[in-house]
């Protein structure tokens, strides 16, 4: 099915970060963003936003027009059901705000399935966990944590300018924004709840 255990889920937004994976699951019209890519490509969706005729050899999974999930979720679950162990989501930013918010929920769905997952944009990487994070980063980059699904409490952190030890964030708190990495590895331990981790690279001077 897949050539490896890591799969890309490509959503219908642009510009896209550079895609490293060889197995691509395109949500409907997202196929138009990767035309000409020499990869193992699947296109999933109800094809309401696909404007191009698919060439021979492109595999498809057709979803009903009336459904209770977005095409990105279908692609994520398809990856899981067919043996993927890690997923990178591209094209999650841009477009409608409600769709962007729903796209972040894909990381929570992946966590519940036991999949390693991240959202990757041209400058950001986004992760979700209810346990904690240990990530290699660019020293000096911006690091933000935001709760999801309720409050989140942190027991400790390393490699950040402002410690998260003993901090509890509610959905109405913004204090978790714009921390800074002081080391090339950051560690964050979650005591209770779930959180998104946003890593924003520094702009090149």
Describe the model.
Helix 1 packs parallel to helix 2. The model has no long low-confidence stretch (mean pLDDT 89). Strand 6 and strand 7 form a beta hairpin. This protein has 205 residues and is mostly beta strands. It folds into two domains: 117 residues, Rossmann fold (3-Layer(aba) Sandwich), CATH 3.40.50.10240; 73 residues, Thiamin pyrophosphokinase, thiamin-binding domain (Jelly Rolls, Sandwich), CATH 2.60.120. The longest helix is centred in the middle third of the chain and has 17 residues. The strands form two sheets. It has a ten-stranded mixed β-sheet with strand order 4-3-2-1-5-6-7-14-9-12. Strands 8-13-10-11 form a four-stranded antiparallel β-sheet, with no helix packed on it.
